[in-house]
Amino acid sequence: MANDIGAGATGVNDWIKRIVQPARQQLRIRRRLRSYADLYLRRKGWQRSVALRESVGPDGPVPWITFPALMMLERIVEPHYKVFEYGCGNSSLWWSRRVSSVVSVEHDEAWAARIARIAPPNLTIVVRRLGENASPELAAHADAFFSRNPDLPVSGDLHHDLEHGLICREFVAYATEIARHGKGHFDVVVVDGMARVLTAWMAANFVKDDGIILFDNSDRWQYNSGFAALAERGFRRVDFYGTGPVNPFESCTSIFARNLDWAARNTVIPPGQISQLGW
Question: Which of these, 11, 13, 19, 17, lies nearest to 3 by C-alpha position?
Fold first, then answer.
């Protein structure tokens, strides 16, 4: 009889280990995931961005970059800044609410027209199409780049290479548009559109000495020549890994700067900011 009871208890314990404990663990994980969704993703507007398939936050358009990078920009951007963007979109609208002026160069005429219809007065959108010719003076800037980087990685699939900003030679007019404004005019240059290796080169040459370059999708090895061009000019790299609007995966947005004084601004947390302590 005692042996039967012992055997029965052992069976119950085995059943708990095999069935009950894993079920409790899964329930605990689901509760944590629900809390993560409510306390982090919902506050960032991530669910809304997924539903709309658009880069938006709780208060409207936001750049399609990682949330950690966006939080840093919110801390360091100054109202007097002048911004140049490679690629227009919701980021252009976000920047225009925070800085004195924004110039965005875009290759897609229809997309540029859509953003231009709702653009505020301090946002200028310039269209430079695939294959458009640049003036000899502007093209000379790109010639210096190509002499150093004759072969850049491409997949051979035109749609893929356009989508990921890999094609450079066909976007000389697009990339050199920044040169029309002269060196040192812009406080921030955003590399987040076409020809990202070439545009990184141009950004390094034309951003202010103490300015910053915001480089999205900087976890891609295909942009290594662009990263090298920035490093050669004394730019230091600060990475912000994480998720962002719409996407369910991790990527990286980086800030490149010669001068890191911007990192010393707004280092004190305001008393009213919510923390995990709930205050």
Answer: 11
Q: What are φ and ψ of residue 58, in 5° steps?
A: -60, -30
R_g over Cα of the chain: 24
Residue type, 148: R
Query: Is the domain of 24 the same as that of 65?
Result: no
pLDDT digits (tens, 9 = 90+) for 158-168: 899 988 999 99
How many angstroms separate the CA atoms of 29 and 33, rounded? 6
Number of domains in the chain: 2
CA separation for the pair 49, 46 (Å, rounded)? 5
**pLDDT > 70: percent of the chain:** 91
17/77 same-domain check: no
**Is residue 252 within a helix (H) or strand (E), and if so which, with residue range?**
strand 251-257
Same-domain check for residues 198 and 225: yes
Place 128 in a pLDDT band, splitting at 50, 70 and 90.
Answer: very high
